[in-house]
Amino acid sequence: MKHLTKIGTSLLIAGIFLGTQTASAQDDDTLNMALSVDPDGLDPHRTTAASTFQITNNIFDTLVKVTPEGELTEGLATDWEISEDGLTITFNLRDDVEFHNGEAFSADDVLYSFERLKADESPRANDFANITEINVIDDYTIEFVTENLNASLASDFAYPWTAIVLEENEEELRNSPIGTGAYALEAWVPQQNLTLTKNENYFDEVHIDTVEFTMMPDATARTTAMLSGDLDIVGVSGDLVSQFEGNDSFQIIENQSNAVQLMAMNLGNEFLSVPEVREAINLAVDKDLLIESVFWGYGEKIGSHYPPVLLGYEDHSEAYAFNQEEAVAVLEEAGFEAADITLDMYLPSDYQSYVDAGQIIADSLENIGINVNIEVVEWSVWLSDIYTGRDYDLTVVGHTGRLDPYVLLARYHSESSENYFNYNNERIDELLTDVQTELDEDVRYEMFSEIQDTLAEEVPALYIQSPIGLSVTQANVRGYESYPIDIIELKNIYFE
Amino acid sequence: MNKKNVLFIIGIILLLIPVVLGLTSFFYTPHPPNTMNVANRMQYPSMEHLLGTDQFGRDILSRIMVSSRYALFIGITSVFFGSIMGVMLGALGAISKGILRGLIMRMIDGLMAFPGVLLAMMFVAALGEGIWNTILAISIFMVPVFARLSYSLVLEQQDKLYIKAAKTYGVKPLRMIYKHYLPAITPRIVTQFSASIGGAILTESSLSFLGLGVQPPNASWGLMLNEAQQYMLTFPYLTVPSGVILMMTVLGFNLVGDQLNDLLVRRKGRN
Amino acid sequence: MRFILSRLLSGVAVIFVVSFITFIILMMIPGDPALLSLGTEATPENVEALRDAMGFNEPWYVQFLEWFTSFISGDLGRSYLYGEEISTLILQRVPVTVSVALLSLLIATPIALFIGVIAALYQNKLPDVLARTLMQIGDAMPSFWLALLLLVYVAAGSSLFPISGFTPISEGFIDSILSILLPSFVLSLGLMGTMIRIVRSSMLIALKEDYMLLAKMNGISKFKTIVKYPLRSAIIAPLTIIGMQMAGLLSGVILVENIFSLPGLGRLLLVAVQQRDLFLLQGIVVVIVSTVVIINMITDILYRLANPTMRIGGRDE
C-alpha cells in the first residue's frame, strides 16, 4: 500500500479552518475549536463539503482508515482480503463496537450504509457504481463484489463519505447523527456552535473529553482569538501567518497538500482547441509571481494535474516557463493575432483566492494582447453552468487530493461526465481504461507518468500549484496531524 | 452670502469631487487601475502613489477614480428608474378606484415592509450579480418612496379646482397626468430625486461590500472595502481611502438635496 | 373598531402578497439546490433523483400552495441545508437580532432626544449647528464602513470587545452586552439622524404654540413650561415613527450581523441565499416582513386610538 500519498492535507474546496479553543484556564478536558464554514448538515453520505467531513469523520468510522503517511490501516474492519481475480473484497469486522445509542454494530449496518451511499440521491453514487453485490456472510464478515477490476479497491473504503451509519437514525442524520466514532454529537446550533463529547466505549484511545466548535467565519477574528490565547489551533492564510512568526507561544505547521489548483480551459472554444493558443497562455503567466501574490508564496508550482506529494510525481513545473515574447511568437507562428482572441473567464465568488488568481492571470493575458472578460459567479451557478454545463472559456478552481492517482486523473477521459475541459485524447482514454485493470504497480505508475507527461505537454489547463496548508497551534498542543485525505483525527490530540 | 448658500456650496464641492474623478478616469488615471505590481503592494501614500497601493500593488487613487464612475452611474440611474416606476404606480393608484387601487396600495405597502437590503439581496440572488442587476434591485427598493409621494401629491391635486374643471371637460386620464398633474408635482419629485441619490450610492456600496454588487475586476468603493477587510490586521490603512470618498459623496448629495428642498418646496409653500 | 378591522385585513393581505412575490422571486433564483448538494461528482441521474426527492419537480403553484397552507398552520418546513425545522432555526436566531435592534434603539433614543431638544432650544445657534452637522454625518456615514473602522481600530486592539460572535445573556449580562455593543452602536448612529430631526422639529413647533406665550405671561418659568408641554410631545414624536423605521432598522441589522459575524437572522439569510436553501430563505423573508407589517399595524392602531381625529397620511382608508 506504499503507493498512496505521503503527507498533506488540503484546505481546498469548501476548506475549513479549524481552531481549538482551550480554555485559558488550561482545562485539559475541553478542546474548543473554531469553524470558518458551517457544516452543510452532518450526513456524511449527502455532502461533498470538506468542512463537513472534518466533523463527521470524528462522529462516524469507516471500515478502513488512513495513517498520516497515507498507509491503510484498520478501522471498523480488522483486516481484509482481495480475491485472486481482484474483483471481490472481504472485510472482517470488529465485534466490540457500539453506536452512540448503545446499539451493537454489525455487518448489516455496513450493508445498509453502502446501499444508501449508492442510492441515486447520493453524490457518490457514481464512484460506487462498480460495486454490484454486497453479501453479508455473517454478523462480522461482509464481502463486496465489483464489476470491473479496480487495483486500489481497499482505499475506496477509507474516504470519510464511506462512514457507517445507523438505519434507524436516517431521518435525523442531517442534524442529530448517531455513529460509532470517537466522539458523539452533543449539540449543534448552526452558525453558532457544535459540541462533541468523548465516546467512552470507543475501541481506541481518546484523549480529550469535550470538543467545542465555535463558528468564526472571519479570518481576522480567528487570528486575534488565537493571539489572545482563546484558540489552540487555527488554520491561517499566508498573509496572516506573520502574526505568529517568531513567537514561542505558537507552533506553525506547514503541510504540503495533495490538492491541485488550476485554470481550466474549455477545449470546446475555437481558440482554446488549438494547442498553440493554450501553450501561449501557459507561457504568458508567471506562476511564481502568481503564487507569491495570491498565496503569499505558500504553494508548490506544478505543470501537470498531479500533486508533488503523490507517489509517481513527475516534475513538469518548468514546462512552458514564463516568457511573454515567446508566447506572442507562438501565437503568431500558429497564425493568430492575439487581439482577435477574446475569452470569457468565470471565477467562483466563494473562493477569494481563485478570484484573485483569475484577475492576475487575466492581467498577464492582456499583456500579450489576449482580451479577457472576467465574470464572478456564485458557487451554485459555477456548478450548474460552468462545471456541469461547460459553458465557459476559462475558469480558476481547485481539485481536492485523492489517495489513488486514477481517481485524480479519471476526469480526463473523453467520456467522463467530470471532463469539463472537453479534453479528448484517444491515448489518454486508452491509458485510463487500462490502468484500472492493471495489477502490476510498476506498470500502473508508468501509465500515470505518461498521462502526466501528455497533460503537461498539451495543457488543457494552466496548472498553477499544489497549496501548502498552514496551521498554527498553541505550544502545548500535541497529536495534531495532517492526513492525505481531508480529515482531522480529534482523538489523537492532547495537551502537554 | 447666507448660511444656506454655504451648505449648498459645500455640498456641490463634495459631489463634484467624484464627478471630476470619474470623468477624468475616462482619459487619464495616474496608473492603469487593474495593473498589478506585487513588488509594490500595500504601500502607504507616496509621490508615486498618492493614496498608496492595495494588496496587489494596484494604485488606490486610480481605482477610486474608476469606482467613482460606477457609484455615480448606479446611484443616478437606479433612482431614475425607481422614480419613474414609483411615480407612475403612485399616480395610477391615486386616479384609479376600487380593487385596482387596493391592489396597488397593498403592493406599495408590501414593498415598504421589505428591509431594503433584504429586497436587494433577493433580487441580486434571483438575477445574478452585476451592474445592471444591482441597478434594478436598487431601483425597486426606491419605488415605494416615490409611489407614496406621487400618490399623496396627486390626491392633493385632485381636490384643486382646475383639475375638477378639466375633468368636467372630459380630458382623458393620460392627458390629465401629463398636462396637469406632472407639472404640479414635479418640484417635489425633483427634490426627492436628488435626496435619494445619496441613499442609492450607499445601497450600492453596501451590496458590493457583501459581495452581491459590483464584481471584480470592476472597482467599487464597497468592493474595495470588502477586500480591505481581509487585510485588517496586516494593512489597516486599506480601509480608509475608499470609505472617506464614499462618505464625502453621500454627504454631498444629501446636502444638495436638502438645500434643493428648501429652495423648491418650502419657499414655494410659503408663497 | 371598523378602522382596526380594516387595518388588520389589509395587514393580512400585505403578508399574502409579500409571500407570493417572494416565492416568485425565489423560483427565479438560478443555481440548482440539488446540484449544489451533490457537488462536482454528480451525474445527471443523481441530480434528477434528488430534485424529485426535494419536491422541486412539482409545478410552482403547487409548491406555493403547499407552502402557504402549512405556513398558515405555523409550519415553515425543514431546512434542506441543516435538516432542522426552519421555525427552530429562526427562533434560535431571534434573540440575537432582537437584542441588537433593541440595544441600538436604547442607545439612539436618549441621545437623539437630548440633542434634538437642545438643538431646538438654541435654534440656529452653535448647539443647533453642531447637532445638524452630526445629523448629516450620521446620514452619510456608511454603516458597514463605520463597522469596519471600529473592528480595525477598536476591537482588534482590545480584548474588551470580541471581533465576532454573540455571547448569550445566559453566559453573563455584561459579556453579552459587550458582544453586541459595537454593532448596536453602528446601527444607532444610522437611526439617530432621523430621530434628531423629528425631535427637533416637533419641539420647534411646540415651542411656538400659544401656551408658551400664555405661560410666559402667567410668569411660569421657561424651564418648567418646557418640561411640562413641548418636551412631552418631543418624546412621543420619535415613537410614532418606530413603525416606519422598522424596515430600515432591520436592513441595518442584516448588514451589521454579517460584518460582525453575529449569528442572527441576517447571517442565516445570507447563508440561505448562498446555499440556495429556498424554503429557509422564504421562511426568513416572510417572518421578517410580517414582523414589520405587524409592528406597523400596531403603531398605526395605537396612534389612531391616541389621536382619534388624525388621518394617517398616504393610506387609503
Structure explained in plain terms:
The complex is a heterotrimer of chains A (496), B (271) and C (317). Chain A has 496 residues and is an alpha+beta fold. In chain A, 24% of the residues lie in helices and 24% in strands. In chain A, helix 4 packs antiparallel against helix 6 and helix 5 runs antiparallel to helix 7. In chain A, strand 9 and strand 10 form a beta hairpin. Chain A has a domain of 211 residues: Roll (Dipeptide-binding Protein, domain 3). In chain A, the strands form 5 sheets. In chain A, strands 12, 13, 14, 15, 16, 17, 18 and 19 form an 8-stranded mixed sheet that branches. A 5-stranded mixed sheet of chain A has the order 1-2-11-10-9, with helices on one face. Chain B has a single domain, classed as MetI-like fold (Orthogonal Bundle), CATH 1.10.3720.10. The longest helix of chain B is centred in the last third of the chain and has 37 residues. Chain C is globular. Chain C folds into 2 domains: 86 residues, no CATH class; 215 residues, MetI-like (MetI-like fold), CATH 1.10.3720. Chain C is mostly helical. In chain C, helix 5 packs across helix 8. Chains in contact: A-B, A-C, B-C.
Topology:
The complex is a heterotrimer of chains A (496), B (271) and C (317).
Chain A: E1 19-21, E2 30-35, H1 50-59, E3 64-66, E4 72-74, E5 77-82, E6 88-93, H2 107-117, E7 131-138, E8 141-146, E9 183-189, E10 193-198, E11 210-215, H3 219-227, E12 233-235, E13 250-256, E14 260-265, H4 275-284, H5 287-295, E15 299-301, H6 324-333, E16 342-348, H7 352-367, E17 371-377, H8 379-388, E18 394-399, H9 405-409, H10 426-437, H11 441-458, E19 461-474, E20 477-478, E21 494-495
Parallel strand pairs in A: 2-11, 16-17, 16-18
Antiparallel strand pairs in A: 1-2, 3-4, 5-6, 6-8, 7-8, 9-10, 10-11, 12-19, 13-19, 14-18, 14-19, 15-19, 20-21
Chain B: H1 3-24, H2 60-95, H3 98-113, H4 116-127, H5 131-158, H6 161-168, H7 173-209, H8 221-230, H9 241-270
Helix pairs in contact in B: 1-2, 1-9, 2-3, 2-5, 2-7, 3-5, 4-5, 5-7, 7-8, 7-9, 8-9
Chain C: H1 2-28, H2 33-38, H3 44-54, H4 60-72, H5 86-121, H6 126-140, H7 143-155, H8 173-207, H9 210-217, H10 222-228, H11 230-240, H12 242-259, H13 265-275, H14 278-306
Helix pairs in contact in C: 1-14, 5-6, 5-8, 6-8, 7-8, 7-12, 8-11, 8-12, 12-13, 12-14, 13-14
